[in-house]
Write a structure and sequence with these properties.
This protein is an alpha+beta fold and 499 residues long. The chain is 50% helix and 16% strand. The protein is flat.
């Protein structure tokens, strides 16, 4: 009789340990919802800005599917998740606290990359905190997969353009096609081609990385094979894009520009990339042939929920304090007023310039362009200035370009610097080429208040420090462009600060 009662009590104990009902675990579910709601409130600016990027930039349209996809991957492993005891883990604070600080710094300095990275680092870290270490390890990939929501990768465009141009020129020379290259312009007897940003293949590169990582997780077991396939998914689109650019120019050469010119090469590109995706998945299937038998997932230990009110309340307090700090920083870092031009050039002004750099500025507070007579009555020096107060605009941003990429192409095989006395900086001289082969030299620098920088990173760090101190100052970018044969050293002495 006693043995029977003991067995009943043991079964009841196991049943209670496996109870995931809301009634029995009300405090756990309520605290979990509160923590996730506080994440939404704290990261609202980052969430709203990242949605705008996903919607407005076709390179990052996949961002809408990453978090739902990650949650679905977790749902697929629900049997593994529920086989562990769900208990809050304080170890997750090693990610939560730095991510919160990174978000505050990003919001203070208007660094969207920091805000987006912190937003989608916090979310998986909070899930880790709520479910515990063992469960988090079992769903490690879905948690890490959420980082693909961060819209990063556009910085690779110039490098991918160079790689595509270098690779296609090499293949064209190997096949005997006569050509002349100037920067990113490739000229053959039949016409001229520009390896533009749309031809960099960055969108396909990112998409291939995402698809390759997901395929490796779902279909491959061996870590060696997974790593190999992810590496292939990174290299394959780069090589494929080189072949695509080469093929477009070769077809134009063979058909005397009748085909592969204008919109044709974009259409060919889509079909080619679709073919490459199929080839990539085919490679995955070859690697998967010997990996067909998946290992059974086994888990040990007690099931159920073990709630720690103290840990959850502590996390809520930390996030609430970070939210209050962020609010105070935004209140103190008020916008500044515009100011007059802070630089000029001690040369006679002139009217129509011999060339136009056409820099692109994203919603500047104020901007101007002036042109000067350099020598021989030639209007050949262009001066541009744009100011940013940090409200609905940003001094250091990938959206600000010192030249229009549709009109100019960077020539990266030259390395030259000049010293500008008025700002006490060594500036990098950038060589640009136009479609007709005209070469110009360009220098630029950034100013935050009265302090000047030749590095975007240093300028942004100084801006962040000023914002955290509640002392935001006007940011300015100054650009000077001259012909290739102009002596920049002489011009540097004529650049004056305006008192």
């Amino acid at each position: 009789m006693e043995t029977r009662d003991a067995l009943k009590n043991e079964l009841k104990s196991q049943a209670s340990e496996c109870d995931f009902s809301f009634t029995s675990n009300k405090s756990y579910y309520i605290s979990s919802v509160l923590i996730l709601l506080l994440w939404v409130a704290f990261c609202w600016e980052g969430i709203s800005s990242v949605i705008q990027v996903w919607y407005g930039n076709e390179i990052f349209n996949h961002g809408f599917f990453i978090v739902p996809g990650s949650l679905y991957l977790i749902y697929l492993k629900r049997s593994v998740v529920l086989s562990h005891k769900l208990t809050p883990s304080p170890l997750a604070l090693i990610v939560i606290v730095p991510s919160s600080l990174l978000y505050i710094v990003g919001a203070a300095g208007d660094v969207q990359l920091f805000m987006h990275l912190a937003t989608f680092s916090l979310l998986p870290a909070l899930i880790w905190f709520l479910v515990g270490n063992k469960t988090a390890v079992s769903i490690l990939f879905p948690l890490c997969f959420m980082l693909f929501s961060v819209p990063v990768g556009e910085q690779l465009i110039p490098y991918l353009q160079e790689v595509a141009a270098d690779g296609s020129v090499m293949l064209l020379q190997l096949t005997g096609v006569p050509l002349f290259r100037s920067g990113l312009y490739i000229e053959i007897p039949q016409g001229r081609f520009l390896v533009a940003e749309a031809c960099s293949g960055v969108s396909f590169f990112i998409a291939s990385f995402v698809i390759g990582s997901l395929y490796a997780y779902l279909n491959l077991i061996s870590l060696k094979r997974k790593t190999l396939f992810v590496c292939v998914s990174l290299l394959f689109p780069v090589i494929a894009n080189i072949v695509r650019v080469y093929g477009i120019i070769l077809i134009a050469y063979w058909t005397d520009m009748e085909y592969a010119a204008g919109a044709d090469h974009l259409i060919y590109g889509w079909f080619f990339f679709a073919f490459v995706i199929v080839c990539l998945l085919g490679i995955g299937e070859l690697l998967n042939r010997t990996d067909k038998q998946k290992l059974d997932e086994k888990s040990y230990g007690k099931k159920g929920i073990e709630h720690s009110s103290l840990l959850c309340v502590g996390l809520l307090v930390i996030m609430l304090m970070a939210h209050i700090w962020l609010y105070l920083i935004n209140e103190r870092a008020f916008p500044v007023n515009t100011q007059q031009s802070i630089f000029t050039i001690a040369l006679p002004p002139c009217g129509t310039p011999s060339f136009d750099l056409s820099p692109i500025f994203n919603n500047p507070t104020k901007q101007k362009a002036k042109h000067f007579d350099g020598s021989n009555s030639s209007c050949n020096i262009s001066f541009y200035e744009a100011q940013f107060d940090g409200v609905n605009n940003e001094l250091v941003s990938d959206l600000n370009r010192i030249y229009d990429p549709e009109l100019w192409s960077s020539v990266n095989d030259r390395n030259e610097k000049i010293w500008v006395e008025s700002i006490a900086l060594d500036l990098q001289v950038n060589y640009l080429s136009s479609p007709n082969g005209k070469i110009i030299k360009v220098v630029y620098w950034l100013s935050v208040g009265e302090k000047h920088f030749n590095s975007k990173v240093n300028a942004k760090l100084f801006e962040i420090r000023q914002a955290l101190e509640g002392n935001r100052k006007m940011g300015t970018i100054t650009i000077v462009a001259v012909p290739e044969d102009y002596n920049f050293s002489q011009l540097s002495s004529k650049i004056k600060s305006v008192d």
